[in-house]
């Protein structure tokens, strides 16, 4: 998505440790108009796919998924990070290692909000090693729902998450794929395939 690539080039900041900061339009301040365009683009990409629910993970995913969901006329369910898992069987649970915080979270979704009739689109801001998306897929599998695809705003193509998911036959659509980035020069290149 050209508009997104331009914005990443202009305002994205490359940090050490393969972290791209996009705080001025996605992760801290949100450019609603830009995210709205992303919503239209995801709708175009997934046109004709039966999707009745969007699944994301707190916190950054929520704002984005909510704007995107309007184009699918679907509710957003967000997985919650928690420290104390309630073992009464009312939750689907998994563990996700945070790429940016380097710690493992227990993540939950109430059984009330996912069921075998659901057709799910996962939406998230970044795809790096794939831990977050894999955790969400675990939860979808536990619920018996159908995963229709994964929509990512920025995939870091030099990390393995996207490749491994696609090798499993999962449809992963990223609006921008970073091919390389350099924290010394600030240079960012994109993959166009
Ligand atoms: P993964 O689980 O695929 O390794 O990493 C994806 C998650 O880590 C995303 O939900 C995102 O919050 C965070 N993340 C990974 N890489 C980056 C990055 O370069 N910049 C930002 N802002 N977040 C990232």
What does this structure look like?
The protein is an alpha/beta fold and 193 residues long. Helix content is 31%, strand content 34%. The chain has helices at 2-11, 23-27, 32-45, 60-69, 131-143, 161-167, and strands at residues 13-15, 19-21, 53-57, 76-82, 91-97, 104-110, 119-127, 146-156, 172-181, 188-190. It has an eight-stranded mixed beta sheet, with helices on both faces. Strands 1-2 form a two-stranded antiparallel ribbon. The protein is globular. The structure holds guanosine-5'-monophosphate. Guanosine-5'-monophosphate is lined by residues 19-22, 27, 60, 99-100, 124-132, 156, 161. Guanosine-5'-monophosphate binds at residues 19-22, 27, 60, 99-100, 124-132, 156, 161.
Question: Which properties best describe this structure?
Answer:
single chain; 193 residues; alpha/beta; eight-stranded mixed beta sheet; two-stranded antiparallel ribbon; 6 helices; 10 strands; binds guanosine-5'-monophosphate
